[in-house]
Write a structure and sequence with these properties.
three-stranded antiparallel sheet; flat; GTPase activator activity; CH_dom; 3 strands; mainly alpha; WW_dom; coiled coil; Actin-binding Protein, T-fimbrin, domain 1; IQ_motif_EF-hand-BS
């Protein structure tokens, strides 16, 4: 809501007083809002609402930043404590925040603001007088506007609205501290009086200027402005028209604000007229506007000399102007002007701060350019000397404006830059060339670091960085790049090169891409092989294998069925192992399968040829020849003994005799079946082997084969062939050999081991008997727990039955059992007591002597301690207190001391209250002298102070009418004792009060110390309370440090 309005009906005195307090609260909120908006315009950042502005100003950060705005030399940003307010938000106010407040006060003194406006540090830090702080900000704004260092402050009275709750809160806050609102409307007059020499002459000149502005005559206004008594500076005749227009507008605005505002302090002429400071501020404003227009014209014409003249205008007060940077100024300010036009959507002059910022930016650019050229020269000199450490130091210079340099790669920079420098026509690298070279070398250094760290992801990010500039790098080959480059780096390190060069990296990537391309071609061929395996066509499988070319040697047409069979079997086994019907063979598995098929072919052909040789030797009937071919490793027969050569020939000959030819002609092909179901065919005439069935389909029936003899032999011994893929032997031949060898061996064995067989039989019979006994014992052990459980159940049943019978008997005779127990216990106790009593009666004299001796010894020891000890224990003193002499005088002295201590405490309290009242009276008298409060307020405060002193004096002179502790009731006495315990605990345990002090607001902690802490410790009137008070201060300091 806005300012409270007066109702039409007559108000009571209380209502009028309440409305006046609300008016004061609203006016103060408006002043806070004015100060907030002015500070936002100066600082360029948002501030909290006016209801929170007072609390925000207490840490002094915003005030110090404000001081930096108009006095940066006095308050540099690095001097501001806690500029981001992180310490304040985390732990509240810190004593170092007072430095910010002092910096602000130093800045105001530096610019010349009269000290009468300066607030004290405690007014801000302890929030003792925040209206005075806001008053100072208003005075500072007017003074800075006069100097042209800040914009004018707005008059928002009646233009802003506040809620009723905000007004009531501010009213209660002002009443709480008992502060009077300063006369904000009289700031201009006070400032003029403080700054001028002849107050009357200045006042008359200012009023004449206001009258001339009202008349609207430009010449008359300019004449009054040039009056020396007005003490105005910076006047320009060519700006007389703008002076009249701006001053007239400012005077109309001030008059409008004055009509909307209720002035409780009484009407003043400067409430309607412009003050000398406001006039000077508007003149400075017009001068700055004119100078900025000159700057804009020079920028539009791109005239360097005109820009230089415009920038040298004293009204702009620009710093750090350098004539050799005029071209940079023109370029920077033109750019700023274009950016501002694009941002706003229309053409607008640059502000004074924007022009200053552009000049500083151009100066920084020039400094950076000069420093860069010097740094590039140092780099070239260092590279030319060939010392890697010096080159690295020169490259690390930030003024060179080069990319990031890695110190670990100093030799790399030195070597590569030295090569570039030697190849350069001028023998010296420019900054742009150094930038590109260092950027690329830094990227190469990152690649080397990633290889040293063994980080593939970091290596890939370095390879694809634009600074690296590599070609052909593919994401899919990142891991291969890492492995190949790591191997290449190891080789180069062995050769003495610590770092890989850019060419090494590019060559490695090209080589890796070529290898990957070959692998992709191989993968495509492997895919075709897997697709061919899905079809029952060995020729397609052979065609797919031939696509692999040189990487898969010894692929023959005759072995094609075996290739197909072995690879299909490997694929089925892989599908079963992985439980994936779509599993495919990899390159290694295909290579292994092809090698296995070749080995199977060689082994099968050797086995078939060996079998044919055995058949031929049997036909010829030569025992020695038959024995020799039976020992052929290709046939893989086991257990062949030379002693059984005749038997072998006889048995095998008989077996061959049972074979009869199927026709008149004997076919030349023989079939051999392998354990995996595959069939191998051998031509007995050409000795040609094949995995494909002959076209005529007929086989030699007289040839001993494995399948035919296996049915006749019934069993055989199978041994592995030379190839690991085949595991079988001709069962017919092996069965005959095994049978003959076994018969020969058994005959010799029985003859040589008769006694051993007898002992073996005896041991077997003993083993059978022991096994039967162990089985019986095992049955018994297995059934043992069941037998034990049955026995336990039976015993438990009997025990429970006996227990129930006994319990029933006892319950039937409960009273008799109780009597018996009582009689027994009584007899035992009586006997023990009588025995002890009889013992004492027999030794009564010894007991008396021992007791007397102990008591006497204890008394002597206590008395000796009382006499000779400086601080005897309390129990000993209490025991001999009756021996001490006390008189009525001692009691009187003690009571008198207590009374005097109470009197001192009362006087201390009264004196402190009088001091605070006198301080407030001094403040009001000072304000009265400066015309900021009325005389009636001072008189009323004096009367109130005199009345309070009289009441306190009458209280001290009056006789105490209380009756003491005896008049307290039992409940109040208990409450008093409870408070005594509480105060004793607070005195002896200072940590509670120490923590409480720092939990309270800063503005209340001092009052809390004066009113509660010193009273609790009785103002340290005796050594004990002084010691406890020091302990409290110690704990408080520890808590603050923590």
């Amino acid at each position: 809501q806005g300012p409270p309005s007066c109702p039409g009906e007559r108000l009571t005195a209380d209502e009028m007083d309440e409305q006046r307090r609300q008016n004061v609260a609203y006016q103060y909120l408006c002043r806070l809002e004015e100060a907030k908006r002015w500070m936002e315009a100066c600082l360029g950042e948002g501030l909290p609402p006016p209801t929170e502005l007072e609390e925000t100003l207490r840490n002094g950060v915003l005030l110090a930043k404000l001081g930096h705005c108009f006095a940066p030399a006095v308050v540099p940003l690095k001097k501001i404590y806690d500029p981001e307010q992180t310490r304040y938000k985390a732990a509240g106010l810190h004593f170092r925040h007072t430095d910010n407040i002092n910096h602000w006060r130093d800045a105001m003194s530096h610019v010349g603001l009269p000290s009468i406006f300066h607030p004290e540090t405690t007014d801000i830090y302890d929030k003792k007088n925040m209206p005075r702080v806001v008053y100072c900000i208003h005075a500072l704004s007017l003074y800075l506007f006069k100097l042209g260092l800040a914009p004018p402050i707005q008059d928002l009275y009646g233009k802003v609205d506040f809620t009723e709750e905000e007004i009531n809160n501010m009213k209660r806050e002002l009443e709480k501290y008992g502060l009077q609102l300063p006369a904000f409307s009289k700031i201009g007059g006070i400032l003029a009086n403080e700054l001028s020499v002849d107050e009357a002459a200045v006042h008359a000149a200012v009023l004449a200027i206001n009258q001339a502005v009202d008349q609207g005559v430009v010449a008359r206004t300019m004449e009054t402005l040039q009056n020396p008594h007005a003490m105005l500076v910076g006047l320009r005749q060519e700006l007389a028209g703008p002076y009249q227009e701006v001053l007239h507008q400012a005077k109309l605005e001030k008059g409008s604000n004055a009509r909307n505002r209720v002035i409780p302090e009484g009407e003043d002429v400067y409430d309607w007229c412009l003050t000398q400071a406001e006039i000077q501020g508007n003149i400075n404003k017009v001068n700055v506007r004119g100078a900025l227009e000159e700057v804009d014209n020079a920028l539009e014409r791109q005239d360097v000399l005109a820009l230089h003249r415009a920038l040298q205008d004293p009204s702009l007060a620009l710093r750090c102007l350098q004539r050799h940077n005029l071209e940079l100024y023109l370029e920077q300010l033109s750019s700023d002007l274009e950016e501002k036009a694009l941002e706003l959507g229309y053409l607008e002059l640059l502000e004074q701060e924007e022009v200053q910022a552009g000049i500083l930016t151009a100066n920084q650019r020039d400094e950076k350019e000069r420093a860069m050229l010097r740094a590039v020269s140092r780099i070239n000199a260092a590279v030319r000397r060939g010392v890697a450490a010096e080159t690295l130091e020169a490259l690390l210079d930030p003024t060179a404006q080069l990319p990031h340099v890695h110190p670990a790669a100093a030799p790399l920079y030195q070597h590569q830059l030295g090569l570039l420098q030697c190849q350069h026509p001028r023998g010296e690298l420019a900054q742009e060339e150094l930038f590109v070279a260092v950027e690329m070398l830094s990227a190469v250094a990152l690649v080397n670091q990633a290889l040293d760290a063994g980080d593939p992801s970091r290596l890939w990010s370095s390879l694809v960085s634009p600074a690296m500039g590599l070609s052909g790098a593919e994401d899919a080959n990142a891991q291969r790049y890492f492995e190949d480059l790591l191997q290449l780096k190891g080789q180069s390190r062995k050769a003495g090169a610590e770092f890989l060069s850019w060419n090494d990296i590019q060559d490695s990537i090209n080589s890796t891409n070529s290898l990957v391309q070959d692998e992709n071609h191989r993968a495509h061929a492997v895919q075709l092989v897997n697709q061919a395996l899905l079809q029952a066509d060995p020729e397609k499988t052979l065609a797919a294998l031939l696509l692999l070319g040189p990487s898969l040697p010894d692929v023959t047409l005759q072995t094609a069925p075996r290739y197909h069979h072995v690879l299909c079997r490997a694929r089925r086994q892989k599908a079963q192992a992985t439980e994936d019907n779509g599993a495919e063979l990899w390159w290694e598995e295909i290579l292994e399968g092809v090698c296995q098929a070749n080995q199977d072919t060689a082994a099968a052909r050797s086995m078939a040829l060996g079998t044919a040789a055995i058949n031929q030797a049997i036909k010829e009937g030569k025992t020695s020849q038959t024995l020799r071919v039976l020992c052929n490793p290709a046939v893989a027969l086991h257990g062949v003994l030379s002693a059984c050569a005749g038997a072998y020939q006889e048995q095998l000959g008989a077996l061959m005799a049972t074979k009869r030819p199927a026709g008149s002609t004997k076919p030349s092909w023989v079939r051999h079946t392998l354990p995996d179901g595959a069939e191998f065919y051998l031509n007995l005439q050409t000795l040609e082997g094949s995995w494909q069935r002959p076209r005529d389909g007929s086989f030699n029936s007289t040839h001993l084969s494995r399948e035919e003899i296996q049915v006749r032999a019934g069993q055989g011994c199978v041994a592995p062939l030379a190839s690991p893929g085949l595991s079988w032997c001709p069962v017919s031949l092996q069965a005959v050999i095994a049978r003959v060898t076994a018969a020969h061996g058994r005959e010799r064995l029985w003859a040589a081991n008769v006694e051993l067989v007898v002992r073996l039989q005896a041991r077997l019979r003993g083993f059978l008997a022991r096994r039967e006994l162990a089985a019986r014992r095992h049955v018994l052990r297995e059934q043992g727990p069941a037998a034990i459980r049955i026995q336990a159940c039976w015993r438990g049943y009997r025990q429970r039955r006996a227990y129930r019978e006994r319990l029933h008997y006892l319950k039937a005779n409960t009273e008799a059992a109780i009597k018996i127990q009582a009689a027994v216990r009584m007899w035992q106790a009586r006997r023990k007591y009588q025995e002890r009593l009889s013992y004492f009666r027999k030794n009564i004299k010894a007991v008396v002597k021992i007791q007397a001796f102990v008591r006497a010894n204890k008394a002597r020891g206590d008395y000796r301690m009382l006499v000779h000890t400086k601080s005897p224990p309390l129990g000993i003193v209490r025991r001999f207190i009756h021996l001490l002499e006390q008189s009525q005088h001692d009691f009187w002295e003690e009571s008198e001391m207590l009374r005097l201590q109470e009197e001192v405490v009362k006087r201390i309290r009264a004196n402190r209250q009088l001091e605070s009242d006198l301080d407030l009276m001094d403040i009001k008298i000072g304000l009265l002298v400066k015309n900021r409060i009325t005389l009636q307020e001072v008189v009323s405060h004096c009367k109130k102070l005199t009345k309070k002193n009289k009441e306190q004096l009458s209280e001290m002179m009056s006789v105490d009418k209380q009756k003491g502790l005896k008049s307290l009731s039992k409940e109040k006495r208990q409450k008093l004792e409870t408070y005594q315990h509480l105060f004793y605990l607070l005195q002896t345990q200072p940590v509670y009060l120490a923590r409480l002090i720092f939990q309270m607001p800063q503005n209340k902690s001092t009052k809390f110390m004066e009113s509660v802490i010193f009273t609790l410790y009785n103002y340290a009137s005796n050594p004990r309370e002084a010691y406890l008070l020091l302990q409290l201060f110690k704990a408080a300091l520890q808590e603050e440090i923590r």
